[in-house]
Amino acid sequence: MPLLEARDVHGGYGGMNILNGVNMLLEADQVGVIVGPNGAGKSTMLKAVFGLLHVNQGDILLHGEPIQNLAPNKLVQRGMGFVPQEKNVFPSLSVEENLEMGAFLKPANVKRMLTKVYEFFPPLAEKRRQPAGELSGGQRQMVAMGRALMAEPTLLLLDEPTAGLSPLYMNEIFDRVKEINAAGVGILMVEQNAKQALAIADKGFVLAAGQNRFTDTGAALLADPDVAKSFLGG
Amino acid sequence: MNELVFFINNVIISGSVTGSIYAIGAIGVTLIFSIMRFAHFAHADMMTFGAFMVLLLTAAFPAAGASFGIPTALVMLPLAMVITAALAVGIDKVFYKPLRAHGVKPIVLVIGSLGVTLMLQGLIRLFAGTGGQSLYVDDRKEIFRLAVPFEGVRAPIVITEPQIYLFILTLIAVVALHLFLSRSRLGKAMRAMSDNPELAQASGINTQMIVAVTWVIAGGLAAIAGTLLALDVTFKPDLSFFILLPIFAAAIVGGVGHPYGAIAGVCSRLCRNPGGIQLEHSTTPLSGQPARLVRTAQQFGVCEQ
Ligand SMILES: Nc1ncnc2c1ncn2[C@@H]1O[C@H](COP(=O)(O)OP(=O)(O)OP(=O)(O)O)[C@@H](O)[C@H]1O
Ligand SMILES: [Mg+2]
């Protein structure tokens, strides 16, 4: 049974629809990458999956069960984690408190998962008492991912985790994403660094104007001259 | 020495009394603002309501305090806190929640809370009349006169029983709030929601529950503040007009929109001076308030220097 399936999803922010029929299929343990031009509806699609956007047509299934329009906290209970594109930390809370909030629904997890997350992102261990608002962009991204991991999700949604990061940090984040996936967590992420992201993708979805333009394996999309010409900058 | 005693009586003690009352009210206002992002103008009337509940309960069981050796009103306070907290949650359900669900601008909620103010005040007036009433039904307000053992000192230091309880309860409330916000899972979630409500939701925090907890805390504290004010002065249905703006001043000075602001507000109030006298004798409650608001802010600047 697929981990996540989206069938003909339509939805928007109240006025016009932004998503005009998006389809996705992701098996457990796979990495799915959404690419596309600015304003294509990539973030909007992630929000729809995570219950932050009203879906007015189509189905979204998690482990075969319909989840469209369930509240986000219900989806966290069902094993979904979400790292938004912007404002993805609690600035006045310390790093450790940020992480604890990720395990709000599983307080018994806190100790064990804190140890794990600090092992996974060593820079955070040193900064554990520091307010997250005082961290650099890359460290914030680690806090945000760490927070989402605290609840031990089976599907992790990441919206542009490498936005604004230097190439070194960017590679670091991609490595972390691969490791998280290797530990058995399905990943659906939006990326602007399309070539690098598609290189680690089992599934790639090229969105434009709220619809799938191309859908294939990451490698096939990278090799496709049409995709390269119109979406990967040649 | 006489000047020192005068200073202690009229500046330190009476200033801390009003400061403490404003501070407990301001904690509620700040918590509500930091979670729901609107200025809750009906807060002072929740304080009056809490005092009113104590008045009713005290009238119903006037002798209850004697067996504990404290004023009956204080014995009734926990029950009044529960009732006021329930009222706060109820008011949110009926008035504010539907407005929030429509995604209205904060100003609409503020106007709504003005409506709640009038409604609560009318309700209290309906049952309590318009005059002042003492919360000491069967017992007396103890007044302690501490003679100062120095030559030439004529006046004693004067402090009343409710003032002592007020200091103790304020201290407990501030320490408890600090521990709650810094240590407990719910308290941290409250700060998280104040920082970033969408992310709090995305983390699985039940934001509806946090809202309810906020009202429970704010309502309970309002009952404490209202009761202690009524014990120190008298109970009146329009008490709120005397305290509403100072409470907001305290909240603003402390930093509205951040749960910890209220605690800073407490400290600022404690270094503020002669409030107590004005509170009892002010006959033009509303007209004098804007000036006081400005002065409060200025005084804080002076305090800090
Ligand atoms: N909160 C919102 N309310 C109304 N419209 C929105 C909102 N967020 C996004 N939109 C609109 O939805 C469309 C798609 O936006 P979305 O954020 O999904 O784009 P994106 O593909 O993630 O772009 P980017 O690469 O710039 O992040 C845009 O036209 C945008 O104007
Ligand atoms: Mg986006």
TrEMBL record, chain A:
It comes from the Bacteria. One of its GO terms (molecular function) is branched-chain amino acid transmembrane transporter activity. GO terms for biological process: L-amino acid transport. Residues 4-234 form the ABC transporter domain. Keywords: Amino-acid transport, ATP-binding, Nucleotide-binding, Transport. PANTHER family: HIGH-AFFINITY BRANCHED-CHAIN AMINO ACID TRANSPORT ATP-BINDING PROTEIN LIVF (PTHR43820:SF4). Belongs to the ABC transporter superfamily. This is ABC transporter ATP-binding protein.
